[in-house]
Structures are given as C-alpha cells and as structure tokens.
Design goal:
The chain is an alpha+beta fold. Helices cover 59% and strands 11% of the residues. It has 2 domains: 126 residues; 159 residues, 60s Ribosomal Protein L30, Chain: A. It is built from 9 helices and 4 strands, in the order H-H-H-H-E-H-H-H-E-H-H-E-E.
Length: 297
C-alpha cells in the first residue's frame, strides 16, 4: 500500500506549477501599453507617407521627377502603407485580448520585439525617402549649350568641360549616399531629351541620319517622329557622357550596390508644365533634363 503524499511536498509542487504557469500581469499590462505606443508611431508614419505621396504627385505634375523614380517611390509608399496596416491590425488584436495564457505571453513578447524593430526600420526608410523627395533631383542642360544646331553629337570642347554641367548632380548624389552609409542603395540616372517643333527638311543630312536611326526603309517619318528621335539621340549622348564622368571620378560611394543609366526622348512634349507660352522653335524646349534617384535595396 502506497504511503500518502506528504502535504508539504504537495504544497511545494503546487507553488512550482503555479510559478511556471502564471503570467506576470504587470508585464502583460506594460507590454500592451508599449504595443499601443508603437501603433501610435505607426499611425504617424502613415500620415507622413500620405504627405510624401502628395509631394510625389506634385513633382510628377511639374516634371521634377523621372518616370523610374516616380514608379519606385509610389510602389515603396504603397508597400509600406500595407505593411503598417498589417502590423497595426495584428497589434490591436493582441492588445484587446482579455485572457493571457503562458503561450500568449510568449507571443506578446515576440510581437512587441518584432514591432519595435519594424517600426524603427519603417521610420528610417521614411526619413530617407522624405530626404530624397525634398531634394532637387533634376539638372537642366540646355541643348543650345551642349549641341550645335541640328546636331546630336557632343563636341570635344563641351566634353572637355563636362564638370560644369554635371558637378551639381554629382555633388548631390555624393552627399546623399554618404548621409546613409548603412543603407544598401540603388542609384538611377535618367536623361530625358526634348526638342522644339521645327520641321526637319526632307533630304537634309539630319533627316537621313534620323531616318536611319528609326530604321525606316520605305516610309517617310513624320516631323514629330524625327524630332522625337532627335531628342532620343541627344538624351543618349548626355547619359553616356555623364556615365563616363561618374566612372572617371569614382564617386559612386561604397553603399551603392547597383547603378542604372537610362535615357529617353520626349520629342515635342513641353519640358516644363509651368510654361504656357512655348513657341514652335522655342529654345527653352530644346533641353535635356538629367534626373537622379537613390533607393534603399
């Protein structure tokens, strides 16, 4: 016959079980308060993103941002907003739980740790993006200065003096990259070319060159097609020159892991939406806009 289990041992066992199964209610309360504070921070991040979205749209309307940067920034804002909403919803559910068991307490602590890190990471990325959007990311290069009339090749004299054309953009890029050494960054440089609406005489050397570039064998290109190809050729020349300039300077920065050089021609499109009195042969239309954008990988 088994002896009765000693009462003092039974009491000790109960105490041990209670200690290991109990959840520290003060810890739970404090953790939930911390989660609520993080949710408030996330709400502030969401408000900041809304303001940045307005600034992005304004830059887009005023042609102060290139298409690649515009698309990436919009995707970044949309993705971050979804991330914030998901995190807030999950935290709200946990904050509202009335009974917290041992397993729930472990989940609460893990959620708090994850939310802290994520909120800080989102805040850091928003600061970088805000800094980027509030900078001047475009350099205006007058084609009359860079190219001879009716030409799209850059003269050796201009090529030798490229520093004065590209130094403003290069300095801005260098300063920005050095400001965020802990971010692996991707750099996008885009040249966007424009032309006026002057007709290019059929049979001229420029007409033949542009037609060859368009790879048209029998059809005669329209004036708009020729001027667009002229703007493409000039944008291509500028981006190639800038590429050689940045490579020669070696100023890409240690945190830039990827650099993309792009060019596009906008033809007879108005380069500045704020200008309403452009003329057909207006020199203000003959420009190349050089855009730069930096993104966290």
């Amino acid at each position: 016959m088994l002896k009765a289990f000693p009462s003092y041992l039974l009491l000790t066992l109960v105490v041990i079980i209670t200690l290991f199964s109990c959840v520290p209610q003060k810890g739970v309360t404090n953790a939930k308060k911390d989660l609520a504070t993080i949710n408030n921070q996330l709400q502030q991040h969401s408000t900041t993103l809304k303001d940045l979205e307005k600034q992005r749209k304004k830059k887009e309307q005023q042609n102060e941002i290139d298409d690649t940067a515009n698309t990436r920034i919009k995707k970044f804002i949309d993705k971050t907003n979804k991330e914030i909403d998901t995190l807030i919803n999950r935290n709200t559910i946990i904050i509202g739980e009335t009974v917290v068991e041992k397993a729930d307490w472990d989940r609460l602590r893990k959620t708090l740790s994850f939310s802290r890190k994520t909120s800080k990471n989102i805040g850091d990325r928003i600061l970088l993006l805000s800094d980027l959007i509030n900078r001047n990311m475009v350099v205006r290069i007058d084609q009359d200065v860079v190219f001879e009339p009716g030409k799209y090749n850059i003269t050796p004299e201009v090529a030798a003096a490229i520093g004065r054309l590209f130094e403003p953009a290069s300095k801005e890029i260098d300063l920005f990259v050095k400001k965020y050494p802990n971010f692996p960054l991707s750099l996008v440089i885009t040249a966007k070319g424009y032309s006026d609406a002057t007709s290019i005489a059929e049979g001229s050397s420029l007409y033949k060159e542009l037609k060859d570039r368009l790879k048209l064998q029998t059809e005669n290109p329209t004036s708009k097609e020729l001027n667009k190809e002229l703007s493409v050729a000039r944008a291509e020349a500028v981006i190639n020159l800038f590429k050689s300039y940045t490579l020669d300077r070696g100023s890409n920065g240690g945190s830039v892991s990827n650099i993309l050089y792009l060019h596009e021609g906008k033809g007879e499109t108005s380069p500045d939406p704020k200008v309403t009195d452009y003329k057909i042969n207006d020199a203000r239309r003959r420009v190349v806009l050089l855009f730069w954008s930096v993104f966290p990988e």
